Amino acid sequence: MSALFKQNGEECMKITRVLMVLFLFSLASISHALEVGDKAPDFKLEATDGKTYSLADFKGKESVIIAWFPKAYTKGCTIECKSLAENGHLLKKFKSTYFMASVDALEDNKGFANEHHADFPLLSDPSKETARAYGVLNEERGVAMRQTFYIDENGVILAIDREVKPETSAEDMAAKLAELKIAPR
Fold first, then answer.
1. Residues 6+ positions from 167 with CB-CB distance below 8 Å
2. Disulfide: which of 20, 25, 43, 89 matches 130 by Cβ 3.0-4.6 Å?
3. Domain range spanning residue 119?
């Protein structure tokens, strides 16, 4: 009996070691959340204005704001879009381009933008690749989390707002641009 226990114990230890190696490997393969100072992932996304944008388009020219939102036509997203549409003049004072972005289909974002008179582009990421790269994809729900990224003209993340208030989104973005000392137009 003790020989059987010893053999089973050794097999358990081998299995435990294999599981530990697999666990450590999985931890190493998990990408870290983006932080201030990180290089922002480049993207190439279609927008509601009929253009395709990439972060590289703005390199050396101006800063970029990407305001990720969960889903077109939902309450909080509607409030945020209205804030930016009605108060975008506050943002246009700065040498910066701003976008809202979601994993919605382009046609959904076009209708949403038109309905709320958005005079700025909404980016569509239906493949969810860019949302994953930015660490905003809620895999369980299949939508982006509401977060705003401020990226300088060299592609470096200057700030991340993970507690966006949809009703004051435009005012908060303008205040953050001033705080970051983004040049006026």
1. 79, 80, 83
2. 43
3. 44-179
